[in-house]
Each structure stands twice: as structure tokens, then as C-alpha cells.
Write a sequence for this structure.
């Protein structure tokens, strides 16, 4: 008799998934296929008799489904190294397999973990699911690079990663090494932007590359570094700067095609270019710089037509969207919370994703620091945030280290990206910029602009500008903080509807 419990050699269908596929395993008196067998191994449960996490695939004498030990049979699924039946991969558990793979990847010539990679070794061993790290180590150039570092063939430094082609995988590896404390912290996207720009400029014709490189170094890169000193470069900034370089290169190519150059550029040519090429603000900024540097003739850059004012968002629509985010569990919880901060407290997504757990306090009431003075959260939002914080403690991929982001992203050491949050909110017609403007307009009509700026963390000039535009005439001085009865900070109602 083979593993299927049959002796006639005929193929049988799977009794679990009912598919007509080869069912090579005999488990709990059922023929099961490879997929169902793997699923069973990957999802151990707590044995009702011994209370240990094991693969439950056997009957005891009372026909209860239990582990192999409690059924009195040899352990079929146990790790060959430690005997555990959790997170099985091949013949080992995830932890033993990961330990083995890490020693192979990070050991030096003496067979010991390279001292410079010891923090990475310790960090990766805290993975909540070691199997994900094992799969990651198999990907190139991750494993090859780490083995070369451990062997001393490559230095354990950012320069080693800079020598690799730009890719999301190399960026993730750099973030991982920073998160583990193996490499010093740097602004990863700023570093990659400089590397990308250098390669792009080198690919341009010599004259174009010279002027584009000068502009990039003294304008774009200088401003990006200044910004990075306060706030790390975001994927959006990286994409914008990369696009600017492409547009400038396109403009210089257009000059060549039309027998022109920066030195011979005249007003008629500028007007002709902007008449036929839309969304060229980057070229306008470049030309203004070129004029200041004496690289081109003084010309007038056509101004951009102001966008037509958007109609105000009615208050009832705002609160209907609040209701939706409070109740709609199909939207990821983190994005729901950020959307609520946008809708209720006029926040920008870019500010929300940078919140830290230390910005939240939860004593008798839950408060969040968006500006200088913490705000008390309405009870529905507070309940969602408490649930989110509970999930964070179980979803952290690594048990130690890293910034205490309130909304951590998938990349080590990083918060969730603005783009991923917007991707969840836009399908529900929640446009953050539009809604933020509408909420500030509403708040400055009921609360002094200085108080709005203080509580919401927005610039005072922004609040004053909204107050002037809406002809704000606040009379009394309503309390912005939540009352003990649970009123929201805006005095709207206890549940933000």
C-alpha cells in the first residue's frame, strides 16, 4: 500500500478540495493532494490534548483530531533539527531553516558570523515568519551580496550597494541593513535620486549633459538635500525630480531639432514650445535658472493658467464619508484611520503617514498630537485606533528595532507610502487635498485661525488665508478639545457623522 492507501495504482481525486488531481497522501482517512497537504503543514493548530502547536492530522482513540504524539504515532511533521511543527519549510521548521541559511550567507572564512554582519543576523532571527526571510535570501542580488560581504570580497558599506544597479530589491536590502544597524542611516531615496540622475545625465549628449548636470547639482539636488535635513525624500519627490530631468532633456532635444540652442533662444521660440507642449513647469523653472546664470537670453516664461476653483464640498458629504470610513471594513484599517484624520482634522496624507506611536496617548481618553496641543479623538476613531495599535503588535515583521511609526510600511525602517494610502481612498472619492481645504474653510468659521493652526499643526498663514477667503466671523470661542461627553474637537457631535 502506498501513501494514498491504495494498492491498484489508480489515481484518485482529492477528498478535501474535490479536485480531480493526484491525491498522493492519506491523512485523516482521506486522500489529499499536494496542495492540501502543504496547506495542512503550513497551518498547525493547538492540540486539544497537549495544548502545543502541532500539525493536527491524526485521530486518537476517541476519534478526536490531535497531533501525532497524542495519537501515539511517530511524529510525521516534526522538524528534523528541533522537533517543532511550526512554520514548516521542507524538513525543518522556519527558525531552524533560517538559522542554517543565515549562517551560510553571513559566515566568514572561520565559519563564524562576520562581526560586521552580527547585528543583521540577530535582527533577521527575530522575524515573525522566518520563511519570508529564507525566500528573500534566495533572491538576487541579496544572497550574493551578503555572502561577498561576509567573505571580505566586498566592504560592508553603502558604497557596495551603490555599485549595484538601481532596483527596488537593492533599495529594500539597504533599508534592511539600516534597520538592523549594520549600516549607518542615510536618506535612501535621496541617495538613489543622485545615483539615478548621474546615470541619466551621463546618457545625454555632452553639451546637454553638462548644463543638465549643473542644474541638477545646484538646484534640484541642493533643494532635495535641504528638504532631507528636515524630512526624508519621499517616492513622490523622487518621481517628480526624475520627471523634471526627463522634461529638461526633452526641451534641449527640441532645441536641437529646431536648430536652436540656449544661447540663441528667443521669445518666439519659447512661446512656440510652450504652445505645443503642456505641463512644462519644470522647463519654465529651468529656463529661469538659465537666465540667472547668463546661459540664455532674458525671455518671458508663459505663466500657467490657474486651475478653476473647485466647488465647496458640502458638510453632509464630508460626514457621510466619515461614516463610510468608520464602518467599511473592506478598506485597510490604516488607510481608514488616515482618511478619518483628513476628513475630521483637515490633515494632509503626507503628515499622517509620518505620525509615530509616541504621538498617541491613551489614558482615560485617547489623544493624538497633530499640532502643539494634543486633540482628544472622538470615540469611534479612538476605538479604531486602539484596534490598529493592537494589530501592530502582532503584525510587525521583526520583533525589535526600527522607528515607532504609527503607520509602518512594508519596507524596513519606513512608514507607509502616501501613494498606497491614496490608492485605497480615491476609489471612494476621498480626495485628500480637496477635503482638507473644505475642512479648514469650515473650521476657521467657528474657531479662531490661530487656534486652528495650533491644534491641527498647519501654518498660521494658511489658516488666516482660509479665514479671509471665507469671510470668517467667529463670535464666541468654542472649545476645540473634546468634552468629557465625547464631543469631537470641532464641537460637531459625539460620533463624527
Amino acid at each position: 500500500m502506498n501513501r494514498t492507501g491504495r494498492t491498484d495504482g489508480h489515481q484518485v481525486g482529492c477528498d478535501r478540495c474535490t479536485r480531480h488531481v493526484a491525491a498522493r497522501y492519506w491523512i485523516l482517512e482521506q486522500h489529499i493532494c499536494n496542495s492540501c497537504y502543504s496547506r495542512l503543514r503550513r497551518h498547525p493548530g493547538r492540540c486539544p490534548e497537549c495544548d502545543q502547536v502541532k500539525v493536527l492530522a491524526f485521530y486518537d482513540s476517541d476519534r478526536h483530531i490531535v497531533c501525532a504524539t497524542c495519537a501515539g504515532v511517530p511524529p510525521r511533521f516534526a522538524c528534523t533539527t528541533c522537533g517543532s511543527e511550526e512554520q514548516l519549510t521542507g524538513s525543518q521548521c522556519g527558525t531552524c531553516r533560517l538559522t542554517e541559511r543565515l549562517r551560510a550567507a553571513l559566515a566568514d572564512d572561520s565559519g563564524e558570523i562576520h562581526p560586521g554582519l552580527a547585528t543583521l543576523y540577530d535582527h533577521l532571527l527575530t522575524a515573525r515568519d522566518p520563511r519570508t526571510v529564507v525566500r528573500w535570501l534566495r533572491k538576487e542580488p541579496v544572497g550574493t551580496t551578503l555572502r561577498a560581504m561576509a567573505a571580505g570580497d566586498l566592504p560592508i558599506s553603502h558604497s557596495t550597494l551603490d555599485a549595484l544597479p538601481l532596483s527596488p530589491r537593492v533599495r529594500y536590502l539597504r533599508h534592511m541593513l539600516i534597520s538592523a544597524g549594520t549600516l549607518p542611516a542615510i536618506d535612501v531615496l535621496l541617495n538613489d535620486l543622485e545615483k539615478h540622475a548621474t546615470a541619466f545625465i551621463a546618457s545625454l549628449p555632452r553639451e546637454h549633459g553638462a548644463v543638465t548636470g549643473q542644474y541638477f547639482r545646484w538646484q534640484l539636488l541642493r533643494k532635495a538635500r535641504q528638504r532631507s535635513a528636515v524630512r526624508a525624500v519621499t517616492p513622490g519627490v523622487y518621481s517628480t525630480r526624475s520627471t523634471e530631468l526627463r522634461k529638461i532633456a526633452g526641451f534641449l532635444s527640441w532645441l536641437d531639432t529646431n536648430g536652436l540652442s540656449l544661447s540663441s533662444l528667443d521669445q518666439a521660440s519659447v512661446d512656440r514650445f510652450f504652445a505645443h507642449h503642456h505641463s512644462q513647469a519644470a522647463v519654465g523653472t529651468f529656463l529661469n535658472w538659465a537666465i540667472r546664470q547668463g546661459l540664455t537670453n532674458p525671455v518671458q516664461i508663459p505663466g500657467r493658467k490657474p486651475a478653476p476653483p473647485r466647488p465647496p464640498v458640502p458638510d453632509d458629504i464630508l460626514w457621510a464619508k466619515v461614516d463610510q470610513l468608520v464602518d467599511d471594513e473592506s478598506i485597510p484599517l490604516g488607510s481608514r484611520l488616515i482618511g478619518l484624520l483628513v476628513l475630521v482634522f483637515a490633515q494632509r496624507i503626507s503628515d499622517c503617514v509620518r505620525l509615530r506611536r509616541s504621538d498617541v496617548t491613551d489614558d482615560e481618553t485617547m489623544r493624538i498630537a497633530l499640532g502643539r496641543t494634543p486633540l482628544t479623538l472622538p470615540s469611534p476613531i479612538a476605538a479604531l485606533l486602539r484596534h490598529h495599535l493592537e494589530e501592530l503588535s502582532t503584525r510587525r515583521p521583526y520583533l525589535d528595532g526600527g522607528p515607532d511609526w504609527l503607520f509602518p510600511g512594508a519596507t524596513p525602517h519606513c512608514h507607509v507610502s502616501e501613494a498606497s494610502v491614496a490608492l485605497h481612498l480615491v476609489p471612494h472619492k476621498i480626495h485628500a487635498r480637496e477635503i482638507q481645504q473644505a475642512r479648514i474653510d469650515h473650521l476657521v468659521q467657528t474657531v479662531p485661525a490661530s487656534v486652528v493652526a495650533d491644534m491641527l499643526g498647519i501654518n498660521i498663514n494658511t489658516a488666516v488665508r482660509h479665514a479671509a477667503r471665507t469671510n470668517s466671523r467667529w463670535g464666541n470661542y468654542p472649545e476645540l478639545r473634546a468634552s468629557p461627553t465625547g464631543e469631537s474637537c470641532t464641537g460637531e457631535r459625539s460620533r463624527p457623522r
Remarks:
- The longest helix spans residues 206-228.
- Residues 1-9, 475-497 have pLDDT under 50 and may be disordered.
- The radius of gyration is 30 Å.
